[in-house]
Design goal:
Layout lengths: L3 H11 L7 E6 L10 H8 L4 E7 L2 E6 L4 E4 L5 E4 L2 E2 L16 E7 L4 E5 L6 E4 L15 H7 L10 H6 L9 H11 L12 H21 L24 E6 L2 E6 L5
Antiparallel strand pairs: 1-7, 2-3, 3-4, 4-9, 5-6, 5-8, 7-8, 10-11
């Protein structure tokens, strides 16, 4: 799904409509699932001027002259301004655009349109979204905040991969970024978070920050070093060892049998 790096690219694209006023909003029944009705979106957004953009994890926020507008992108959601997509080539999903996959958006006084395109129908519009359910943003996570992510109050805690995917603990890490961070850090994703050594914690934080920086520069969370080995029977691109796979935190996870321990 679009992870924090992709949604950050959406945010930068959405900067183009700052200063524009909404003349019409529309939504289908799928993208309005968190609203009282599709018409609630149309009523709430009309006449609002976009004053800025922000983001918490995978949640895009449009600051306006009135309410804050939130957009979640689900598994395959892409943001477009007219015909320009926030990620190159519509990587997530079927790699093509269809008008029937447009779930709603905003039309502005200058004629431009902000569009949510989502084949899987899991993207959502929100009005004044509740941010209290989300942890600190992964792109600006400090070492102190990262140590808090790894702090388990009782028992050994969940597998570290599952911990990184918990949006209430740290907002923005998805399946691909989680695997890439652990791959670079040399940490087995099944390791209980509460059993990590201080040395493993240091490696993880270094890999966490380096992954966000380097994959952001490359263009997305799908461009990690481990991507070429995300299939059954693959060998680690780092050391040639067999890659293992299991479902961890509800997501299919791949890791090296040799250097991740």
């Amino acid at each position: 799904m679009p992870e924090i790096l992709e949604v950050e690219s959406y945010r930068r694209l959405a900067d183009r409509v700052v200063g524009s006023t909404v003349v019409r909003g529309w939504s289908d029944a799928y993208s309005a699932k968190k609203l009282t009705s599709p018409s609630a979106w149309a009523r709430a957004v009309k006449g609002l001027t976009v004053t800025g953009t922000s983001r918490r994890g995978k949640l895009l926020l449009l600051e306006t002259s009135g309410v804050t507008l939130g957009i979640r992108f689900g598994m395959t959601g892409v943001l477009l301004i007219d015909d320009e997509a926030g990620i190159d080539g519509l990587f997530y999903g079927p790699h093509l655009f269809k008008t029937e996959w447009v779930r709603g958006g905003l039309e502005f006084d200058d004629g431009r349109k902000l569009i949510l395109h989502d084949p899987r129908r899991l993207g959502r519009f929100e009005i004044d979204p509740d941010l209290s359910e989300l942890g600190p943003d992964a792109l600006s996570l400090t070492r102190k905040q990262f140590d808090q992510v790894l702090t388990i109050k009782r028992g050994e805690g969940p597998a570290i991969k599952a911990r990184l995917l918990d949006q209430s603990v740290v907002a923005g890490v998805g399946n691909l970024l989680g695997d890439e961070i652990l791959f670079r850090a040399g940490v087995d994703p099944r390791t209980p978070a509460g059993r990590l050594s201080s040395e493993q914690r240091s490696r993880l934080y270094k890999a966490f920050t380096a992954t966000m920086r380097s994959l952001g520069g490359r263009g997305g969370s799908h461009l990690g070093d481990h991507m070429e080995a995300r299939f059954p029977g693959a060998f680690c691109p780092m050391d040639g060892a067999t890659m293992l796979s299991a479902t961890i935190g509800g997501r299919t996870t791949y890791w090296c049998s040799k250097h991740q321990y």
